[in-house]
Structures are given as structure tokens and as C-alpha cells.
From TrEMBL:
<dbReference type="InterPro" id="IPR016161">
    <property type="entry name" value="Ald_DH/histidinol_DH"/>
</dbReference>
<dbReference type="InterPro" id="IPR016162">
    <property type="entry name" value="Ald_DH_N"/>
</dbReference>
<dbReference type="InterPro" id="IPR016163">
    <property type="entry name" value="Ald_DH_C"/>
</dbReference>
<feature type="domain" description="Aldehyde dehydrogenase">
    <location>
        <begin position="11"/>
        <end position="477"/>
    </location>
</feature>
<dbReference type="Pfam" id="PF00171">
    <property type="entry name" value="Aldedh"/>
</dbReference>
<dbReference type="InterPro" id="IPR029510">
    <property type="entry name" value="Ald_DH_CS_GLU"/>
</dbReference>
<keyword id="KW-0560">Oxidoreductase</keyword>
<comment type="subunit">
    <text>Homotetramer.</text>
</comment>
<dbReference type="InterPro" id="IPR044638">
    <property type="entry name" value="ALDH7A1-like"/>
</dbReference>
<keyword id="KW-0520">NAD</keyword>
<comment type="similarity">
    <text>Belongs to the aldehyde dehydrogenase family.</text>
</comment>
<feature type="active site">
    <location>
        <position position="248"/>
    </location>
</feature>
<dbReference type="InterPro" id="IPR016160">
    <property type="entry name" value="Ald_DH_CS_CYS"/>
</dbReference>
<protein>
    <recommendedName>
        <fullName>aldehyde dehydrogenase (NAD(+))</fullName>
        <ecNumber>1.2.1.3</ecNumber>
    </recommendedName>
</protein>
<dbReference type="InterPro" id="IPR015590">
    <property type="entry name" value="Aldehyde_DH_dom"/>
</dbReference>
<dbReference type="GO" id="GO:0004029">
    <property type="term" value="F:aldehyde dehydrogenase (NAD+) activity"/>
</dbReference>
Amino acid sequence: MRYKNWIGGKWVEAKSGKYFSSTNPADPADVLGEFPRSDRHDVETAVKAADRAFAEWSRVPAPKRGELLFEVAKLLKERKEELSQLMTREMGKVLKEARGDVQEGVDMTYYIAAEGRRLHGYVTPSELPHKTCYAVRRPIGRIAVITPWNFPLAIPTWKIMPALVAGNTVVWKPASDTPRLAYELAKIFDEVGLPDGVLNLVIGDGNSVGIPLAQHPKINMINFTGSTDIGREIYKYGAGKLNKVHLEMGGKNPIIVMDDADLELALDGILWSAFGTSGQRCTACSRLIIHRPVYKPLLNLLAERTKKLKLGNGLDPKTDVGPVVNPIQLKRIHEYVELGMKEGADLLIGGKVAKKGELAKGSFYEPTIFADVSPDMRIFQEEIFGPVLAATPAKDYDEAIRLANDTTYGLSSSIFTRDIYQAQRAIEDLETGITYVNAGTIGAEVHLPFGGIKDTGNGGREAGQTALDECCEWKTVYIDYSGRLQKAQGID
């Protein structure tokens, strides 16, 4: 089946008339459809549609905008299993994780829909008599949303739902690896009767769609999740237009395990954080920092547990680790593994492209653990975005914190310890936007801020109340009912 863009409330073909296929990374013979190869001409049409729709949509009362999102959430919930199955087929994550991805989209949509009845401003006393002062939120305008493939439903809802409830219009470019999930979400908006042009879906690659969209003079804000290198380029395009730009980028997230930790609990957290979604999460644990007294025992236990993980198609309920998203990513991961061996790290387990039996058809990489990784190695410093874990010993708490912070990224972090003093110190000392105590580095609740520091982002946060801060402007209002001209305070 051939799918189309959704622009101005209509399903339309790309101007180029060209298409590409979306296939299952576990089995490329499983084709999910053909999708438009859009370009700057389609971007132009979509931005014009968003521009036309903005004035009317921004005047719809926010509670009414929220009511429409409640209808979207209802359909997402009803179609959870169908969407989860499609997600596993399109990008590979195991079915139980795909269900979690969809559920996060449901939760975010319900949460933000309710904000339509709040969208809190604030009132403050004036310094002058008979004068009222307050501040209200106003929409920014036309927002470009550019989303990744690893959370193809959750992340779009993080960005689109707050933008819409705040009264903005959106042009959305999803990842080229997951166009089918984008189509299904847009289809739900179409079914609930979202006014024409409020949300526009343009499918295509970064050069043909993403860059023209970010550069477009009518776009007032860019909201991007992806790699740090591309994020830097996006930032430049926004800066040239004085756009607001929200960037959510890479991570090199550490788990610290101290000698007093519950090792079985730590093992569960490490395996889930390092190899869930085949390590393709910005919050994945890719660095393991272990207190020396438990370094070798923990690594031995970890290697044994990792050997038991089953690679396979994510639709198989016995599968623990699915494929990586495509052959290009598979090649990139293996190049990093080869680099780690050249750098002198000890390959404990894995390190190969999986080619046995049914695995040979897809993009499967063995869960991989390196031991004795030093901070000067690239596999310690650079984001690999695959099932590769680098383990490093630390002589004490202070060295563990130094190692954890020795990176340009700062998204998520974790410490396993029974010592309340060390746990509280770690919360203060770890240079990340998120810290977990006695849990892995991944997972987010939709009512709390999500984001990082350093090269992970540019200061903004998604989810929670901060999601609204990102897609709103503040307007301050003064009402003088004194009946005379009151000059500034201190002037008679």
C-alpha cells in the first residue's frame, strides 16, 4: 500500500511522485508500505497550511483544544495492541517495549489534554494603587517538529500534544525509518476532526525535508530530537531566524555500582538499561562504573546473564533483544566494537553481527560488554547507540563520580547503593538532568521534566509543566483603573 502526506487536512502525494519502502529490520521481506519522498516543495505547502490555520486555532478556547486531545488519547488506547505490533515490525523493539512506547503516548496525551483547563499564568500585586498585573501564556506560532525512530509514538506525543493544546500549529517530519507509525498517529488526528492545517505530516529524509523545514522563514520554533551533530546544525538554522529551538540529543549514561549495592537488583537494572531497545535509547546505559571490591564478581554475573539473552524478532514473546534499526546502524555499531578492541579494551562477551539462522536476514548485533575501559577511549566517550556496554573500575565513590561526569553528555545517570549518604551525594554530584537511585538509567514519567545538560540539549525540558513552557510565550498585562495617568513607581 502507498501512504501519503497529510497537509492542510488532506492526504496528498509528494510533489516528486517518488516513494520509498519501510521494512522490518528483523526481516526486510516484511514491507510495511511505500511512503512519499517529500522535498522542499511539500514543506512549503505544509508551512502555508499551518500558517493559514494558526489564527483560528489559537483563538479556540484551550479547554476545547484539550477536549480534542482527549479523543486522540481514547483512540490511541483502543488501538494500543495494533500500534504496538506495527512498531515492533517497523523499528524492531520487542513487543512488550513497544506496548510501553504506545502507553507513554496515551499517558502524555491524557496528561496534556487536561492542561487545556489550566495553562496557568499568574497574578501579582502592582506597586501602584488601583492597578492589576498578570501574565498569560500565548502560543508561539508555527512549530517544526522533527522526531526520531527509536520512540516513534511516545516522542511525537511529547512534542505535538503540548504544542497543540497551547494553540500552536505544527509541521511534523518523522524519522524515515518509522513513517508508518507517523501515518497512524496523523490518521487518528484526522478521524477526531482536527481542523485543517493545524497538524501537517511531511514524510521524507533530513536533507530534503528536515533542513528546508528548519530553515523556513514562517517557522517560529524548531523542536528536535536526534543526534548531537545534527542538533548543532538545527540550532544554527534557528539562530539565523531568532527562532526558539528545543534540542534533545545524545547521551553517554553511566550506572555506578558501589560495593554495598544489591547486586541482583543492579544486574536487572544494567541489563534493562544497556540492552533494552537494543541499546537504542538516548537514556541507555553505555558506561558501567563499578566499585573495585565488586568489579570482577559483578562482571562475571553480568556476562552469564547476558549470554542468556535471546536475540530475535520482537514479535516472538521469547525474544529479549530485537534488531537494530537498519544495516547502516549495524555497521556503525560494529565499527565502534572493532575500535574498542584496537584501543585495548577487554572484550568480555559479544562483539559480532549475529548471522545464525533467521538472524541472518535482519540487522542483529550481539549484546556486547567491554571490560577495563579507560576514560581516554572513544567507546567510553562517544555515543554508540547500540547494545554495547563499557565497564570501568573505580577505587571509591569520588573516583566513580569523576568517571561518570567525564563526558560531554549529561542526560541520565544511576547509582546502586544502600548508603543513604552516598545516594544523596550522588544526586547532587552527578552532572545530568536525570538521576536514578537503585534503578537503571531509562524510563520517564510524563508529568516530570525530561532532558539533560551539556551536549545533551540546550537547556529546555520536555514533559511535565515544562513542556508547556517550551511551546508558549509569556504576555504581561497591566490594567490601570485609577482614572489618572500613573507614571512609573517613584515618579510623582
